[in-house]
Amino acid sequence: MARARMAREDRRHQLVDLAWAIVREQGADALTLGHLAEAAGVTKPVVYAHFPSRSALLVALFEEYDARQSVALDAAVAAVRADSVDGCARALAVSHIECVTQHGRELAGVAAALEGSAEMADYKRRADRAYAERCERILAPHVTGGAISTAAIIAMLGAADAVSAAAADGSVDIADAYDELTAVVVSVVERARR
Fold it and tell me: Which residue, 193, 185, 160, 188, is CA-closest to 80?
């Protein structure tokens, strides 16, 4: 009896989910299109129809992570008072840390692999810039008569990445990570108000 064909979008979701599982269990270096085809029980051409290269697959993983991070950030900000800088700062801190801690080691492997080629590094730069602009828009209403500098946003996100990685590997308590990153975000807003 022949297997029913999976709809194209369903197959893509399956492949992305399996790719995350491979990265989680075996590391990003183990993720090849051939290995993904084998794990999915399909031929290589099926995988290549969705991802023409390993780079394209890695970008798809990062796009999915970015989409999840955006949803988490929107939900966190929607749940707080928009006029509260502390609430917005806490929402940014918690959503960022939770996204990183939920993806832990596999996210670091994908991010490192993204730096491996010009195409992937370009995508990561664009994604980082879009996330920085999103954070700046969320915080902008709390900065009257001024703007948060690009350097301040980059510094804030660098701190966010570092404290999130430390929380993910257990170096710092997650509650402490939330508190410290919230304080950093508030500080960035307060400095921009001057």
Answer: 185
Would you call 1 exposed, middle or buried from its count of C-beta atoms within 10 A (0-12, 13-18, 19+)?
exposed
- Is this prediction's pTM over 0.85? no
- Examine the pLDDT at 173 and tell me if it is beyond 80: yes
pLDDT in tens, 26-58: 988 899 999 999 999 999 999 999 999 998 999
Superfamily of domain covering 1-52: Homeodomain-like (1.10.10.60)
CATH of 53-193, one of 3.40.710.10, 1.10.357.10, 1.20.1260.100, 1.10.3430.10: 1.10.357.10
13, pLDDT greater than 90: yes
Q: What is the C-alpha separation between 112 and 23, in angstroms, rounded? A: 12
